[in-house]
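Dissemination and training. As part of the outreach component of the grant, students in the summer workshop were shown how a complex can be specified as a set of sequence lines and then modelled as a single object. The example used during the hands-on session is reproduced here so that future cohorts can follow it. Participants entered these lines:
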Amino acid sequence: MSYQQQSDVLERFLRYVQINTQSSDANCDQVPSSACQFDLANLLADELRELGALDVAVSEHAYVTAHIPASAGAEDRPALGLIAHLDTTEVAPGAGVKPHIVSYAGGDLVCGTVDGKPVALTPEKVPALRELVGEDLVCTDGTTLLGGDDKAGVAEIMALVARIAANPELPHPALGICFCPDEEIGHGAELLDIPSFGCTYAYTVDGGPIGELEWECFNACEITVDFEGFSIHPGDAKDRMVNASNLFAEYHSLLPACERPEHTEGYEGFIHIEGVSSTVTHATARYIVRDHDAKRFQEKIDLMQRAADFVNARLGEQRVTVSMKQQYRNMAEVVAEYPQLIDVAKEAFEAAGVTPQVLPIRGGTDGAQLSFRGLPCPNLSTGVYCCHGVNEFIPVSSLETMVDVLEKLVARFA
Ligand SMILES: [Zn+2]
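and obtained this result:
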């Protein structure tokens, strides 16, 4: 397929994924956490200007914002926001992405070869592959992630803007476009100036396989547990040493194994240990807690405190302390008051020939925070599979169909 023959959205996607935009948790006190996110931000701003968007700006924090005026007759309709994120995750290599298209004929999906071994996905591991026989799939070369999370969302929104620029009569309300940084490190669009964005409702385009429609996410917090030991020469330790590493092991064993992420799905929440560092003197364990249900979420937090109380009571002194940092809340609390946002999105999927699937997000989105800040914001699919890893891929047809879905969606708001 020649470059010219490629559809607008595919061409954009292949270009955007080759620009490294990995965010960096180590720099999470700055926004953006990595300067490279400006590379894509500035490029998108230039392209938006060329497409005739208004108020195009890249803020000092790498937020790209722009407005598209309403089509004739829809000027009095509430403005609608479309949002995607610039950054990609740092959990897999994200620089030097070399996308290529595989015509998938069934069986293992081999995206590349690394050290003489094929990097492959099997239909056993990803049963959805069985539905994708005959499709063109954009894959990596096996050494990096693809970055479809969320450059697929970015490309789909940009392709919609281009389609509207070429066909201004396509019905749409005034649109706010936003590409924000650092979603992958939990930044959550907190610096988006909602009043000047000027939208009544918005959608993030940051979901998985095509058809996914999400308006419930986890309640989320981070819990750090510190263990204070007492160190003394092991030869003299009897009845005196308190080994912080053993306090951690005791504490962790009190948490229910059945509530670990590797044993939960759907609406089941979890307690997940992200890491631990320990010596005799001191140990620190980092956990995250997730649950869609606010009551069960609080019960998990309480359980973690009770486990600390239990160890402290056995020791007869305070050596285990639990501290909690709230991360995000389930946006369903807000979005439930705007059921029309879900209905309209379902209609848009169906009008584009896609069966919508309403799923609870087992994570968060930028929309969670935006919803609580007054901009109700469900999440739409991008079409991407297996994101955050070297096996990530996206069907070309999903990229193209998502632009149709967005076109149908904005028409319904006009
Ligand atoms: Zn994402």
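The first helix runs from residue 8 to 17. Students were then asked to discuss how this feature might be tested experimentally.
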